[in-house]
Amino acid sequence: MSILKFLSNIKTYSSQKVGQKLLIVTGNESADLDSYTASLLCAYFLSRHAPSQRLQESVSTSEKIVPLLNIAREEVSLRPELKYLLSTLGLNSDSVICKDELPSVSTSADFVLVDHNKLLPELEDRFSTARVVAILDHHADEGMYPKADPRIIEPVGSCTTLIVDYFSKSGCLDLFSAAEQREIALLGISPIIVDTANLTSKALEKDKEAVRTLIGLLPACDCEDMFNKLMAAKRDVDSFSLRDLMRKDYKEWADDQYPSLGIESSVKSLAWALNKFTVSGFIEGVQMWAKERNLDVMAYMDSYLDDEHKFHRDLLVYANTDRGKSVVDKFLPKAETEFELVSRESWTNGMQNVWMWEQRNLTASRKQVAPLLRLSAGYPA
Ligand SMILES: [Mn+2]
Questions:
Q1: Residue 272 and residue 48: Cα distance in Å, rounded?
Q2: What is the CA(263)–ligand 1 centre distance, in A?
Q3: CATH superfamily of 242-376
């Protein structure tokens, strides 16, 4: 069964009785290429073979295995790179199941978490019974669900690597036809090369091995060309509104007990955004978003290549409340050293509660910045 058929079977599935269980494979709420591909590949593999007892039990008691794109349908247009990747497989975004399209009559769900390791409250609240049965992730371990099996949390470049590694070592690839393997390869290689700049940055041996495994399934593969096309699609945000820019690759930490934090990670430079919207216009966009999401702190990170193909990072932090201001006060001294921040005072130009820096530590992405911000806000490590 092709991926197209696999997805359309789930799409047309609407006749289940109340009480029937779903097995939902979901990525994190940024719903980036890695998150979605990891969930789709994992679900597709599971439809053929469940390598652990916990997964077997879950698959056999679930009505459907649903790979979930963890955003609402209206946000899909904010992910042009996903649209591009789907098109290379003859799919379009209608094939995808978004979080507002989950069958509403289901009361219980098992979850496989990929690309994050703590079930989002919104999904948990949707079902009267929600169990996490397996985790495959490359973020900091939040220490939940000790009985998940597998519970693989390793800091590789791309979570999709862990999916490919786990299922290929379980002999899963052999269960697919050559045509199906080709689709698996196209799907799997894409997020790994996007997340590791075509295996030149942050790629561990396991990432390289996964790409080698997948390339072996493709008759011909020009990874460089694939990478360039995916990145061009990902950077194609010129038509985006300010609000869209804030939520394209966005993560949020909100908890009644602690200040709420939002971080957007952009592949276009902050300078580009400030030039396009003007500094005050852009900051207004940040403020509006912080207000809309009820944030104490909003951060906007960028990473981009300049005309000479040199890699850069910048960081913007905005404190929306007094509570947020004290989070930033704690964050600042550590962040300045750890992330080698060089102030962009000429950009902020005396603005209140807004900080902008060039970030000289080029290895620190949101995976490093978010934990320090969370720690500064008092969240448990
Ligand atoms: Mn990821």
A1: 46
A2: 15
A3: DHHA2 domain (3.10.310.20)
